[in-house]
Amino acid sequence: MLTYLGLQLRRWKTKPFVALISMMFPFLCFFILAPFLTSTTEKTTIPIAIVDEDESTYSQRIVSRLTDQQRLSIQLLPYKDMVKALQKGEVEAGFVLQEGLENEIKAGAIQDTITWMRTSNSTLDVFIKEQLGAELMRIALNAKAANTVMEASQSNKDWEEVYQYSASFWEPSPLFEMNFIKRTPSFPQQDKALLANWHKTVLVLFFFYAWTMSIWLCQQLWKDKQNGVLDRLSLVQLTPIRYYLGQGLSIWLVSLMSFLIAICAMGGRVPWDLLLQVGLWASIVLTGTIVVTYAFYLMFKLSSATLIVIESVAVVTVVATLLNQSGVSWIGDTVVPYFPPSWLMHNPFIM
């Protein structure tokens, strides 16, 4: 078996540049594209249109607070322009701050002060609505507190002065604030690092490349069959088992090395202790996938059509996994967990 493994390695040594590029390709791609991926993720904003019909101090405060949010891109538009932008899909949603908003808040009434407009394609605006409602409630509570103080006391202080005192308990952060920290069942007393969504996407793509490499390397068996190598082997040994084992071992070794090198490229973006757990489980999944792929190929007697079918399955399963990972709802959701790429997301070493 080691003889055939050595033979395969010597074949690759005849084309060292091609072998090196094939091994390092995902590693190099990550270093080139990673800065763009992270910057795109960090700079992604949600476009929101706001129509300020009230043009009061309170409405300006609401707009200012939303503008300070890094993930929002606020556009102040007239009503007609907001409707056009919404119809063209240029904004996720539109919010109309109705005329009289300041007077309504001072009176303690906040019903029907903001109109929410959206389309069937709007998805993320639900979170913006909640944030806008929270800002409106914050201002309304300050106004309510000012009204209560002015009614309960004979103070000579101005209403606005009392309002500003109430508002001071919200700046620079609320007086009472919930601090949510991620925990895991295995480590309930300490923080646990987790992979970001774009890390998972990159991991699936690395897996796809390694899987495709193993399929491509299987072509050597088909070439040996066409060149009569297997026929000559049958003359000197009863069965070509050692040949198949040697070839399979070399295919697994090269594909796994390329996969692990690519994963190491993520070391600058992911903590090494987490990356070790990810790499261990991903290597197990890749090994199982290559073994099944190789066995399936042998079962169909080294047919070139079999490789096309296997590669098609690889493409479909990877695309399906990425769709599921991005939250896209489709008819194949129920079968995605059975695909090898999706097993990467269910790491038993990371609870």
TrEMBL record:
Membrane topology classification: Multi-pass membrane protein
Q: What is its main location?
A: membrane
Instruction: Mark the transmembrane ranges.
Output: 17-37, 202-222, 242-266, 278-299, 305-323
- Specify whether Cell membrane is a keyword of the entry: yes
An annotated GO cellular component: plasma membrane
Q: Which InterPro entries does the entry link to?
A: ABC-2_transporter_component (IPR051449), ABC2_TM (IPR013525)
Q: Where in the cell is it found?
A: Cell membrane
A GO term for molecular function: ABC-type transporter activity
Does Transmembrane count among this protein's keywords?
yes
Signal peptide residues on this chain, from the entry's feature table: none
Query: What is the top-level taxon of the source organism?
Result: Bacteria
Q: What keywords is this UniProt entry annotated with?
A: Cell membrane, Membrane, Transmembrane, Transmembrane helix
| Domain ABC-2 type transporter transmembrane per the UniProt entry, residue ranges | 21-315
Identify the Gene3D superfamilies for this entry. abc type-2 transporter like domain
Q: Protein name, please? A: ABC-2 type transporter transmembrane domain-containing protein
